[in-house]
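Thread: Newbie trying to understand structure tokens

Hi all, I'm a second-year student working on a class project, and my supervisor (Dr. K.) asked me to get a predicted structure for one chain before our next meeting. I've only ever worked with sequences, so writing a 3D structure as a token string is new to me. If someone could post the tokens and maybe explain what I'm looking at, I'd be very grateful. Here's the chain:
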Amino acid sequence: MDNDNSQEGNPFPFSRRLQASAVPVEGLEVVVRPNAEECAALAQQNDLRALTGLEARLHVARSGAEGLEVSGRLRAKVRQTCVVTLEDFDAEVDEAVRLRFAPPPRPVKAASAAPTRRAARKIDRWKEQEEEPAPPQIIDIEEDAPDPLIGGAIDLGAIVCEFLTLGLDPYPRKPGAQFGESASADVEDGPFAALRQGSKKPSEGDEP
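---
Reply by user tm_fold:
Sure, no problem. This is what the structure looks like when written as tokens:
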């Protein structure tokens, strides 16, 4: 597995490329741990205060004749900022990983020979007939299409980066924090609190 962070156009902070030819028939167990510099870059990319203890334990297996399947689990410790209290707090990420890869489809070669006279007459008859609407295509949305296997390799670093982002709460909230608490506290303790108290009309029974 190659550690390559200098690829042009790579949107991810780190890379761990694995050639499909290096995966044995029985599969391959891989542990991906980014270093401190790579963790800092990942934290910056995901707007985290800190990222520690990131580890992905993956199993890479062959899928079909030329494809690969990656499965496993990603765990990390992160420090985020609460959207309610604006305080930093620690949280854990535990995300399942599962992806399939397949080579991109090969381009279909165009026919080099011209159609025969019989084939040409058949094509003319087809053109004269009214075209019937094509039957609707049934797509199984439960089965995701495999990702392309580019250059006969996969990037386990990119997989880790993607699934870390998927496992993060986009609106992190500190345990116990509730919306409205911070705003009400600011209203009672703000600089205009005394002014609001002085502007209240005395109720019946209050001394003047």
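A couple of things are worth pointing out once you decode it. The helical segments are 36-45, 117-128, 156-167, 181-189, 193-199. Residues 1-105+145-178 form one domain. Feel free to ask follow-ups in this thread.
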